[in-house]
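In response to the reviewer comment on reproducibility (Comment 2.3), we provide here a single inverse folding case reported in full, input and output, so that an independent group could reproduce the run without further information from us. The structure tokens appear first.
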């Protein structure tokens, strides 16, 4: 096995503000197939750019005004006497990449206030952040200042800031902080102040390995081993799997964030058990706590995957980041399919279209978003599923921002063979150095994930470059049985599902490669035998009309100033009969709409509809704001009403929906 890889390509100044390297692993870390591109090398386009602009105009761009008491100027990370814990860094972990992706000066300035504060207040002994605990004030976390956990988020921020700017203070401050950790962890281990860091330390390890690859400082690997040894044994837990059958055994966000730990550590351990552990976990999750969005029932502890249980926004954010890291490290396309499942189903629906409010928990079968009791372990006075800045618990208000910007950063990687890899699809443009120091541009035009046509056009930064030899890697999703790749000369390839296609050739300016990924309808079986309908990367859900109304909260209620409640008068108690679905090719009719520039993740903008024959399940009635109990799978009987045609739209376009349907034999 090759354990040598350090490929350094100096990116030209034209690509970004500073010289950047594509950082592959340095010996003795495991060699990896792909490396991150510098922040800003991939620019969002089409609907994805629209999504990021909504974030800019919504909470991401304005959280310091909307939530000034926590992330405003008095935050202790900025030198104030306010919040000292995770929420400030959480916000900047998403704000900073958004600012650079949109080249937005105002947002960059907001993010740099935080990076400057962290860099300039770093102590001589390497410690970063505030170390003074202060008395309790409602709504703030002013104690546990020295906890290792929130600092892990700050490390992620500094790494991204360096990627965008090349500021040489970053490696210096990080090296000093890691020396501080090496000196103090033996006496004050990861779990000394709180247990969160023992589950979430893969973020600590990720930045240590990145800095090791930059500097070659040997003590960093000793520190990584120490941190791993002080962390929860996730490889052991995922391999045994019994925790997934035990309700309340894991915190939902810890599972998402810890999901990558075995593979991150595998780079140093070289133990195949670590590499396999997330695969074991995902197989256990699929048949226990799993939801069709790729996430799990966890409100906040995990439960068997009942579609009425909650799924926290932070779980989506953290699981996406975990999947992105695992995908880059392993190149295993299973994780790209999984990433799209979370990004294109769970993520779009948990914030409002204007990105001015979010849910703490989403339900898979969600017939109302109202302030009332739900079957969750943590209830927060009934505010968990309404859309608001601060309903439920406010971690998500700050941690929701990293999900979309980091997805953009993982649409393309530098490949170890000197090329580029597109493993996750969305409209964008990438600029990177390839082959023998050629600065290439690849435009990716597509309406994916709603449509399976993806068109890549090659160009070069320098006018005098007419062609260059380099490989491009593409993913064929596991759901796609009839993929076709059309090369610039018109010839075609027919790769298998789940395959990486590597096209190694001389590319001329203007060359076009087209990927055709036909999407077929598939059905799958979930909680208690419930039926789920999928097409390509998207899960489909019953379309219901939505009535949005704003409700003001009294100040003493403690869940922010207001919420949006969503109700509907659409019938929702539909199920399917097995015999109606016996011939899927005729059971469903699909209507697609082209990309007309409107916001696709909305009820009115939904680009795909599936029509099918369903039946009313007469006894399935609402219980408060929740769908009541039902046998998801049983013999057809007296509970079946008349057959009707129903319209399904992508789950990510819905707010109210049924996505797990009763099935009648
Ligand atoms: Zn949260």
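Designed residues, in position order:
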């Amino acid at each position: 096995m090759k354990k040598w890889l350090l490929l350094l390509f100096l990116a030209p100044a034209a690509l970004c503000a500073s010289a950047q390297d594509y950082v592959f692993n340095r010996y003795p870390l495991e060699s990896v197939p792909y490396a991150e591109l510098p922040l800003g090398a991939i620019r969002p386009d089409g609907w994805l750019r629209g999504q990021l602009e909504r974030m800019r105009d919504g909470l991401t761009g304005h959280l310091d005004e909307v939530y000034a008491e926590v992330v405003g100027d008095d935050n202790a990370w900025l030198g104030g006497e306010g919040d000292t814990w995770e929420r400030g860094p959480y916000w900047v972990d998403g704000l900073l990449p958004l600012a650079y992706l949109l080249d937005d000066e105002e947002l960059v300035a907001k993010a740099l206030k935080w990076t400057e504060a962290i860099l300039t207040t770093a102590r001589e002994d390497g410690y970063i952040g505030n170390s003074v605990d202060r008395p309790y004030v409602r709504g703030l976390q002013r104690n546990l200042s020295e906890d290792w956990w929130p600092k892990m988020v700050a490390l992620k921020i500094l790494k991204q800031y360096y990627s965008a700017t090349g500021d040489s203070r970053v490696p210096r401050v990080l090296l000093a902080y890691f020396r501080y950790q090496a000196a103090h962890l033996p006496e004050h281990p990861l779990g000394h102040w709180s247990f969160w860091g023992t589950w979430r330390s893969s973020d600590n390890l990720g930045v240590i390995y990145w800095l090791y690859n930059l500097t070659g400082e040997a003590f960093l690997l000793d520190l990584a081993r120490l941190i791993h040894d002080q962390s929860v044994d996730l490889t052991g837990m995922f391999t045994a799997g019994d925790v997934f059958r035990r309700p309340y055994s894991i915190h939902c966000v810890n599972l998402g964030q810890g999901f990558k730990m075995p593979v991150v550590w595998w780079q140093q351990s070289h133990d195949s058990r670590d590499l396999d552990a997330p695969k074991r976990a995902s197989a256990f999750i699929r048949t226990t706590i799993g939801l069709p969005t790729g996430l799990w029932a966890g409100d906040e502890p995990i439960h068997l995957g009942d579609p009425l249980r909650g799924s926290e926004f932070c779980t989506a954010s953290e699981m996406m980041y975990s999947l992105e890291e695992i995908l880059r490290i392993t190149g295993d396309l299973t994780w790209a399919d999984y990433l799209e499942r979370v990004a294109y189903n769970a993520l779009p629906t948990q914030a409002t279209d204007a990105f001015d409010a979010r849910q703490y928990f989403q339900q898979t079968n969600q017939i109302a978003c109202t302030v009332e009791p739900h079957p969750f372990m943590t209830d927060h006075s009934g505010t968990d599923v309404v859309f608001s800045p601060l309903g439920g618990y406010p971690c998500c208000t700050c941690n929701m921002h990293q999900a979309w910007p980091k997805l953009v950063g993982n649409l393309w990687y530098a490949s170890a063979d000197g090329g580029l890899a597109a493993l996750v699809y969305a409209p964008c443009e990438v600029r990177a150095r390839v082959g023998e120091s050629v600065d290439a541009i690849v435009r990716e035009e597509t309406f994916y994930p709603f449509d399976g046509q993806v068109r890549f056009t090659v160009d070069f930064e320098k006018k005098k470059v007419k062609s260059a030899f380099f490989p491009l890697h593409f993913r064929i999703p596991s759901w796609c049985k009839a993929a076709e790749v059309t090369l610039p000369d018109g010839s075609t390839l027919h790769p298998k599902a789940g395959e990486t296609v590597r096209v190694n050739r001389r590319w001329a300016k203007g060359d076009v490669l087209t990927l055709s990924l036909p999407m077929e309808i598939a059905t799958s079986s979930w909680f208690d035998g419930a039926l789920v309908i999928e097409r390509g990367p998207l899960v489909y859900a019953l379309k219901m009309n939505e009535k949005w109304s704003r409700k003001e909260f009294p100040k003493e209620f403690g869940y922010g100033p207001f919420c949006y409640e969503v109700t509907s008068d659409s019938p929702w108690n539909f199920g399917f009969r097995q015999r109606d679905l016996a011939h899927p090719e005729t059971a469903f009719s699909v209507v697609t709409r082209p990309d007309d520039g409107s916001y696709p993740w909305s009820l009115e903008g939904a680009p795909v509809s599936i029509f099918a024959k369903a039946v009313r399940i007469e006894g399935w009635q609402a219980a408060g704001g929740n769908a009541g109990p039902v046998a998801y799978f049983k013999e057809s009987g007296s509970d079946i009403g008349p057959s009707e045609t129903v319209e399904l739209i992508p789950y990510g376009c819905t707010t109210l929906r049924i996505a797990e349907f009763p099935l009648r034999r």
